[in-house]
Structures are given as structure tokens and as C-alpha cells.
From TrEMBL:
This is (S)-ureidoglycine aminohydrolase cupin domain-containing protein. The lineage of its organism: Eukaryota, Viridiplantae, Streptophyta, Embryophyta, Tracheophyta. Residues 32-105 form the (S)-ureidoglycine aminohydrolase cupin domain. Residues 1-22 are annotated as: Disordered. CDD domains: cupin_TM1112-like. It comes from the Eukaryota.
Length: 110
């Protein structure tokens, strides 16, 4: 196994190693496997607002477009209608909602 004299230079993830995972246009079979249509729904208008995830959240966007700015990082993640998105527990970000959002979502119990 290779080693580095300065492993700190290898960390490219946002603070705490938390990052948003976007699965673009997953197949219907994947959505059925997850039970997405049984999850609660939530929506919001355009605008900017801070979000902190106290639990891991998975959501599926029915409509809308969001640019998420991860706190303490220069990383920006865009997602929108048809995307399955996972936000890790402990992540803080600012949502810049470019088009009104309608989504299914669930929080992990762990």
C-alpha cells in the first residue's frame, strides 16, 4: 500500500468528509425498490435558505432545480427534477432554489 508523507493534502472532500450524492434519473425499478412514492412530500418556492441535516436524508425531486453550497467549502452541487439525492447526517449547506421544488423525502432512523 502506498503512503504519503503528508496525508492532509489528499483530503479533497468538504469539511468532515461530507458530500452530497446525486443519482441522475434513476430507473423506475430503483425508485420502486426504495419505496419512494410512499415517502412524505415536501415543496418550497424559489429563494435561498440554510439547511442542516441532523439525519441522513434521501430525496427524489419531482420538479425544481437547486444549487446547494456546502458550508465551509467551495463545493456547489446542482440537482433537479428526476434526481435522487442523498444528504449525509451533519451536512450544512445553503439551498439556492432556482425553480420551485416538489420532492419525496425520507430521513434514516440511524
Amino acid at each position: 500500500m502506498a503512503s504519503s508523507s503528508n496525508p492532509d493534502n489528499m483530503d479533497t472532500d468538504p469539511p468532515g468528509g461530507l458530500s452530497i450524492v446525486v443519482e441522475r434519473n434513476p430507473p423506475e425499478s430503483r425508485l420502486q425498490q426504495l419505496g419512494v412514492k410512499s415517502w412524505p412530500k415536501w415543496g418550497c418556492p424559489t429563494g435561498k435558505f440554510p439547511v442542516k441535516f441532523d439525519a441522513r436524508q434521501t430525496c427524489y425531486l419531482l420538479k425544481g432545480k437547486v444549487r446547494a453550497h456546502i458550508k465551509g467549502s467551495s463545493e456547489t452541487v446542482e440537482f433537479g427534477a428526476g434526481d435522487l439525492v442523498v444528504f449525509p447526517k451533519g451536512l450544512s449547506c445553503t439551498w439556492d432554489v432556482l425553480a420551485a421544488v416538489d420532492k419525496y423525502y425520507k430521513f434514516d432512523s440511524s
